[in-house]
């Protein structure tokens, strides 16, 4: 059975299942409960800035921890807790805040196991919100998954719809390695069918969401819907695009990309981050390395420009990759 | 209620008192207008209003001049206005217009005016603190006589940047002022849940730094304490942590349901502690300003803001190709 | 010099006293051997020695057991040994052998032993502090009765991670102990240049945290203060910041020319405050242990370390293909 | 006139010239002077952990500032100082420490100008040491220039020899944008001819260090010597490699790369960082995009593996890209 849920609701459901099935799962972050005076008549908890964790503290008392605004402390504490027996899910309210808490990911979570000769496990999940589209400007809109994807020892996943959010989050929490779980704003605003009950989606496997033989469109998170819209439009012109949803940007499912490229010979990757050192570059580099013999055309990267995210709607809309640019790129390939 | 006396250390001319009132009123009216515009769907973005905290920015910034720099937070409009930034440019920015202070690129959380020593609102909690420390370092190295002032919230005092910056400033005896606006809340969490000390000013001891506490709802008290701290900084005697106890009358951001906070608590502050009302009561009782003068200031401010809105609404949108300009100095 | 009395609160059996001495001697001899090996070109890497600070790790860790976790710093060998990590595995690790505690992947700055509650040395100043806080959180959530202990330097108390972690620990009343080893220097800079307070313990006030100061060159004083702090933590009464005043006898790292530090300063500490000598003097005067017993402990330790070196030198190097294993749990 | 200097000496010279010619240049960082008791008889300053800043405090009193171990504070203060009239050179002792101080770069230095509508300048230089090879293990050996290169608003440069270090550092300090200046350990240990006097090397321009028509080898920092060694060996087999030293990894000099590729049709990029979201991927992606028509063979990326940096010499040597791997890649291309 499945129902129509928002991505936020799907995440809430996944968190509840994870906590229900494993007493070691705890949540920590800013305002996850909120409303510290909730004992006070007429006040209520908030369940996070987006309401995603609402109700969980009541169901699992003592396992949802409100923290100070201390991201380095939150993530560092979560790494220590993960290495010593808990399975924490830490929330980083916006991915831009990696600026103030990179070390626990870069130098601790990602490296403890290796530095200790394989003798530690860090089953940490970091939930965070990324992406533009909410007029939140330069410091609340970045897509920094390329930074975490580039760090050996971390995994980074990014669902493209509510059902995927549920299955990938459950997989992330149960994974024994540290996983960064990115909630793209464009996806958070979506609703979709979500299966009931407990299920996981394998980390490291891409999903072919539409088959086609003429061109491969690779997207992930919020750009899957961009790719699908482009595929719809292209189909009307007789160009049949295969659309791949990466789901996981690290590890990267190279085989799924390459076997699609083998079939189509042409590839466009759509990434809402800025272009340099991006997932888009990695996909293109893969094509020209292991996929060289399949290539019939240049590989195009449709990304945001090499700029911070602007505030004004007209500028932010120009900043974000859209279907029109994907379509134009495919058309140009001839 | 008996009028509270005006501190004897504060001797302000009629002119300056009116200036203080006008600034506080300008902040209040600006914020109220924004709330109206957002709720009416005419303005986008995340807006954090300064309503209730006007006395803090005003009481501090009245001591500052063109040598000085301030840094601010997500809740930055009040600091801009108090530092002398024009409301027309601000309004145009919040409307995302090409004529905005930041050409529509910054918005509320990044509003700035380098020409008025306003080094930016900041969307990263705590990040303005080292920036102001850097401005103080510039002042010291260049012997400009200037001061770097960081405004930030109680919540920001839990950030590592607070700790590192204050320690550095004290080591170097920088001409800096750290103004913590303790409004009792960080988003939806009460300060007492995440700050285990009653007074954030206590934290200055970790750096052997001078500390002061002011009633942030009282312009005169803030003005007096800030005077002391800024004089100290200009003399070369080092930085101060000034805690202002205050309250935000509205939600964390425009749209906040406020479900987490009791109505009684908010009403108490609004009814008893409103900094504009307290100011008015006292200056009128003391015969320093007339109600009429204040009402006519209200009118001026209202007109100014109305014209800022009209101008902003009429102003052109940015050219979409400008999305890639201003990333680097050349190009 | 008159023998200092042993604090009356410390009543240790002959067995335990000998254990304390053996641990301190093991640390001292281990470090001296490393210095010799590096200078002879037999060992590579950046090594930061704990010589002079032995009483701190020993006095604290004697209260810990298998429920407890410690985190350490770049100067981590002493904490490992005091927490019960075997010197053979450590030596093999420092020689970069496959038989090392971390299979040669970690080295001195990342030496760790999860089986002995040793959550790693750490190359990032301050980074062990939140890790220990996390271990304390695990202990609290799982009601294990365990404690999380972070050892770190005076320099680390200037890091944001210190501030954020202590604040969180106090808010949550975690069973944590923060041991700041104030050895007067951070690399080549004296603590007084960068920490404007005389006692780092003072910084606990920012979090309303319990604080204690111990003579870090005196095993008994550290032992007694740590007992109090750890009992408090285990009782559920929350964390403590314990400052131990100490000194590193050798350079910041092996190879340091020490040009920045006066010889007199170092000689003073070495001659007057050596923790091993002070310990010996007191237990012998008090008739608790004989010189003979101590000399025979010295011999055992020397033999143990010599055999660790011999075993490490004879051990196989890692297989170069293992460079890509242990990055993830599966593969 | 030029003399044989170490890279550290060349940097010291550049700093002295920058301070001499501009009173707004200041230096700040940990132990830049060091030896706080240098008033004490028989003690001396250290001039930084590698001695790079030695003597500068004596020459420019009050302009070389020792800081606490507070990287976030150091960089944040430097950004504030840069925006208000100074031209600070901040030292981040090892690039790995970006973990504790990313925000001043990611969200402040890189974005102030843009967020303020072009009305601010942040003439900040961050000097930092990167790369493996010193048995310093996972947290003191990373090559994280891909992280700063990926951030719009920053520039990132990396010299490959002492002369370049001097010229690029002077250019970085005088640049009105924030520049990250990376000192690769492999390069720091080199000595080479360094011109006397004041000169700059343009940021954003690659340098063709060896010409050849058969294959293009792209390197930067410590991998330039790796590429040159490979080119030497290949020449003996009759394969003539063109070697490009990027000098600047952001901005990337696309034209120089493409015009070499046009000539050779084959390209190998050598990067000592880990592979994901790397400069190597960007170069490969450029080739398969704008350079597609020139390509006669797959583009190979010779990088470190997707692992943390190990301690043991035998492992660290296996971790680092070497000439043998470059040569093998070229040979395989046929
Ligand atoms: C580093 C960082 N963490 C979290 C946030 C999200 N956030 C924005 S405002 C805020 C509360 C700030 O509280 P306080 O400092 O007390 O300022 P106030 O809003 O009360 O004025 C939070 C958590 C942020 N913007 N930056
Ligand atoms: C974040 C970070 N900054 C700088 C360094 C370089 N560093 C290593 S040890 C050290 C001094 C540490 O001083 P302290 O904390 O007092 O410990 P001690 O060496 O005196 O035991 C420094 C600056 C580092 N490893 N990590
Ligand atoms: Mg607040
Ligand atoms: Mg120290």
Structural class label of chain B: alpha/beta
Bound molecules: thiamine diphosphate, magnesium ion
Class based on secondary structure composition and strand pairing of chain A = alpha/beta
Strand order in space, largest sheet of chain A: 3-2-4-5-7-6-12
Helix content of chain B: 40-55%
The CATH superfamily of chain B is known as Thiamin diphosphate (ThDP)-binding fold, Pyr/PP domains
Assigned CATH architecture of the largest domain in chain A? 3-Layer(aba) Sandwich
Helix and strand sequence of chain B = HHEHHHEHEEEHEHEHHH
Q: What are the secondary-structure elements of chain A, in order, as H or E?
A: EHEHEHEHHEHEHEHEEEHEEHEHEHH
CATH topology annotation of chain B: Rossmann fold
Helix content of chain A: 25-40%
Question: What is the molecular shape of chain A?
Answer: globular
Description:
Chain A has about 325 residues and is an alpha/beta fold. Chain A has 2 domains: about 1-195, Thiamin diphosphate (ThDP)-binding fold, Pyr/PP domains (Rossmann fold), CATH 3.40.50.970; about 205-334, Rossmann fold (3-Layer(aba) Sandwich). Chain A is built from 13 helices and 14 strands. In chain A, the strands form 3 sheets. A 7-stranded mixed β-sheet of chain A has the order 3-2-4-5-7-6-12, with helices on both faces. In chain A, strands 9-11-10-13-14 form a 5-stranded mixed β-sheet, with helices on both faces. Chain A has a two-stranded antiparallel ribbon with strand order 1-8. Chain B has about 325 residues and is of the alpha/beta class. Chain B has a single domain (about 20-310), classed as 3-Layer(aba) Sandwich (Rossmann fold). Helix content of chain B is about 45%, strand content about 10%. Chain B has 11 helices and 7 strands. In chain B, the strands form 2 sheets. In chain B, strands 1-2-3-7-6 form a 5-stranded parallel β-sheet, with helices on both faces. In chain B, a hairpin with a 2-residue loop joins strand 4 (about 185) and strand 5. Chain B starts with 13 loop residues before the first helix and ends in a 17-residue tail after the last helix. The model of chain B has no long low-confidence stretch (mean pLDDT about 95). Chains A and D meet through helix 4, helix 6 and helix 11 of A and helix 4, helix 6 and helix 11 of D. The structure holds thiamine diphosphate (2 copies) and magnesium ion (2 copies). One thiamine diphosphate (TPP) sits at the interface of chains C and D.
